[in-house]
Amino acid sequence: MNEKLQKVSVIPPDDVQVPTVTPLDMLNRAVLAGADIAMIEKLMALHERWDANQARKAFDEAVAAAKRDIPPITRNVQGHNAKRYADFAAIARVVDPIIGAHGLSYRFRTTQNDRISVTCILSHKAGHSEETTLSGPADTSGSKNAIQAIGSTLTYLQRYSLVQMLGLAAAADDDGKASAPVDETPPAPGSITEQQEDNIRDLLEAKSVSLAAFLNWVKQKRICDIPADQYDGCIAGINNFRKAGK
Question: Are 139 and 153 in contact (CB under 8 A)?
Answer without folding.
Answer: yes
